[in-house]
Structure formats: C-alpha cells, structure tokens
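Entry for the shared binder. Reason: the reviewer on the internal report wants the predicted structure included alongside the sequence.
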Amino acid sequence: MEEILAKARPVGRLAPSPTGALHLGNVRTFMIAWLSARSRGGRVIMRMEDLDHPKDKPGAAEGAIDDLRWLGFDWDEDFVQSQRKPLYRDALEVLKSKGLVYPCVCSRRDVENAQSAPHEGEQLHYPGTCRGRFASWGEAFAYSGRTPCWRFRVEQGTRIALDDAFAGHFEQDVAAKLGDFPLARDEGGAGYTLAAVVDDAAMGITEVVRGDDLLAATPAQMLIQRALDLPTPTYCHVPLVVGQDGRRLAKRHGDTRIAAYRAKGISPGSILGFLAASCGWAEPGEDISLAGLLPRFNLAAMPHAPLALGEKFFEVFGR
C-alpha cells in the first residue's frame, strides 16, 4: 500500500459537493486524503464540485468549507468547478475531434429497460442505442425535447486494470460492464466524469483518495485520461461509513452532520478521534487533532470493512 503511494511531494485533493451538509462519512474520507498528502510533506487542493445544479443546496458549499476549517483542515489552493467550464468545453472538443463522444437522449429508465440482466447499484450497461443517431447535440435536443448527455464511445474488448493503493488490483471490461458511459448533461461537457479528469490533470493531482463506491467508475475515467493524453494519478479507494444496516448514511440512521455535532458542543478532536480510532490510529475516546495524527498515518492499519455506526456511537454522539 505505502509503496504505491510513495511519491515525493504528493498533491492530494478534497472535493466536496454542495448537494447536502458535510457528514461523518465525508470527513473520514477527507481525513484520510489530507493525512496521506500532508504526512509526506505534500500539498492539498480544495475543489468544490458544484456542477450537479439540480441537487445543489443553497449555502451547502459555504457550510462545508466552514465545517472543514472548524475541524482543522487546511489547503494550499482552492477551485470552484462551475468557474472552470471553458476547460471542460475544450476537452470535449478534443474528444469530439477524435470521434469518441456522441449525444444521447435515452433516459435512465430507457437504459434500465435495455438491461439483459438484473443490475446492482448505480452502474448500468448502455448498449449504444444513440450511436450514430444524431449529427449534433442540438439535433438530439430538438428531437427529444430533453437535455441530451454526451457519451464516451467504448469499443468491444476494452479492458482497464489498476493497482489501487488500498483496494488492491482491480480490473474491468469497460465495454461489457458499462458500455458507452455518460460524460455530462451539459452541451459544453461540464459534468462530473469529464470535469474530474480534466481538473485532476490541470491541478497536478498525483493521488486521489475517495470512497470505494467510486472504484468501479475509475476505469472509465482512465479511458478519458488516455484519450486526452493526460496522466493517471494514483487511486486509493477507502471504505465508506455506513449505518448499522450496512447501507450508506441517511437520515434513518440519525443525524451525522458535522453542523449538528458543532451545535451540541462536541469538539473537533472528539470527532477526529473517533474517526482515527476506526482507522487504527487512535485509542477509543481519544481527543486528537489532524496535526497530532500526522505521525500516526498508516494506511496498512485501516480495516477493509466499512465503518458501521452502531448504538454505542449514538450513545456518545447522540442522534
């Protein structure tokens, strides 16, 4: 694990999205990302990923930044994706010039109905229904009356392999698993998949630490990197924080917002101590700062299972 991450002066990133309040699961992943870079004298980039406009919540971006600073996080530069759209448009033009993207008007339900087998999670296989169907994004929009998405053309037999710094070796037949995957629902290419790839390269990101729910989406991003002649950072996908039922955190599990803990008077050190203990870097109940955790960072000590919040957690932190 450490061998994969062993780079001089790494550049990591924190990439919150303003679709809701910062919660315990976000902070655990950000803590790992921050410690991974800072423990080796590296830099940290803050990138607000605010391109999912229908889901963005007013004040969520500012709230996330405030919560992170309260917890002791710092960073060397900050960016806002909605201010960087010309870069994504330029990247899309390169992909278009290579014949690697096309507009698609299929809805999620259309894609679900086209599945030849039951699917799990968010990933659906796209069979190429709109390949060669429209000459332009505008023509696709006029035909359907709905906002088309740009899809990346994946040839049969396309396989991608990576050695993840925590999850280990991962290999995917992208054509069989995803098919032609979506890049963005913006005419200029401003969508998460394309924007993340372009920004990681433009910002000099050398390592991406994020939740393991995104591991299966990584080969698609690597295909875009290759198509745009961009470097591939080291990836490190870590387990999520989940409820006692094993499902990702939601209101049914209790209030795990950092803002709620602040309102109750719980200290930053208590929150960080709990999360650090779950990684094997602190004793249960220990109050500690991010700076205090720097010499303790050890990816190999982390459990590979998700962190499940049980009743004992809520007895201490409340619901």
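Summary line for the report: The first strand starts at residue 11 and ends at 14.
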